[in-house]
Give the backbone structure.
Amino acid sequence: MALGGGPALVLLPGFMADASLWDDMREALEGFGPVLHGELGQDDSIVGMAQRVLASTPCPSFVLIGFSMGGYVAREVARMAPERVAALVLVATSARGDTPEQERRKQAGAGGAATLAFRGLSRAAIASSLHPDRAGDEAMIARVRSMGERLGRDVFLRQSMLARIGDADRLGEIRCPTLVVAAAQDRLRSLEEAAELRDGIPGAEMRIVDPSGHMVPLENPRMLAATVLSWLRTLPSLGGPEAVRSTAGG
């Protein structure tokens, strides 16, 4: 058990990202509870990914943190097994489905990867996911690309062809405490999309990490970890101060 003694935190990465996405946050998160990682590389649907997360997570109840594509999976998990998800954190994600242009770009990328040697995401794609000031940060670009290289072409093809169907009409089914985290300079997911999640999920709260582009766990891990942990520690259901006061008062 980690020093914090809280429930397990199950972390879900985004498109072509692996568990190393969270490396800079791991120590801080382990101060709250054990850290586990969901596997999103083996399935070709959001539902399939959610089912695998549930089947592979040993603890009966956990906090679920989903980044970008992982946010779609996290919401599906919360709907499938509401009794197991104690709290939900959605980072740099959306309830919107893919636009026709997004679908076209994904299919074109998958077509190229099927015939060419796969060397991870392109430099241009990675740069567009970062804060504008980091567009030329070669170390950061290499770090993002290395995750894609480790996952490989097969995962790229599966995730590129994945249908991201909007679930705005199902957000009201999520009943656990929920925090929506947006990045102030995210060029892939807008603040408006984050607000749609906050407004659609009953009782959800929203925080903004500034500065950061889309890759928040890499770009501003300290602020993201502090934002998530400060919110989790307020939840009575997780032993926050309101629960303590209630117990002390009899």
Remarks:
- Residues 8-96+167-248 form a domain with the Rossmann fold fold (CATH 3.40.50.1820).
- The beta strands are 8-12, 35-37, 62-67, 85-91, 178-183, 205-209.
